[in-house]
């Protein structure tokens, strides 16, 4: 009859030897899956943030198009779901400035804060955030329409 302690002493090195290549592989897979998930979340946020900015610009240029406003509401809801708390807060503060008279400076500051929070959420050039100009979409659109860049 084989003693359980002797069997354990014999099998323990075999079990440990079998686990040595398995454990690092499990850790690597876990870290790889985590980094892939972070990358996918960042890409999702980036796409949604770009679409939000594009739709805000489109609605400012074409305020009477119902389809544009409907799409803007949809992307705002999506950003509220996937955006960081700072982005959601900045977006809601920016939305509160819409439709008010004589608040261009406040709107520009809110828009700049929204862009800064998006950049921070995406990890894009966080060090240059204080140096970004405080400029709103209307001024950006006017400059683009009047620039030599758009001339043939």
What order do the helices and strands come in, and which of them pair?
Elements: H1 4-61, H2 66-82, H3 85-96, H4 104-122, H5 137-146
How would you describe what is shown here?
The chain has helices at residues 4-61, 66-82, 85-96, 104-122, 137-146. With 152 residues, it is mainly alpha-helical. α1 (4-61) runs antiparallel to α2 (66-82) and α3 (85-96) packs antiparallel against α4 (104-122). The longest helix is centred in the N-terminal third of the chain and has 58 residues, at 4-61.
Structural class: mainly alpha
The percent range for strand residues is under 5%
Count all strands and give the number: 0
Overall 3D geometry?
elongated
Straight-line distance between termini? 94 Å
Q: What share of the residues lie within helices? A: over 70%
Short description:
The protein is an all-alpha fold and 152 residues long. It is 76% helix and 0% strand. The protein has helices at residues 4-61, 66-82, 85-96, 104-122, 137-146.
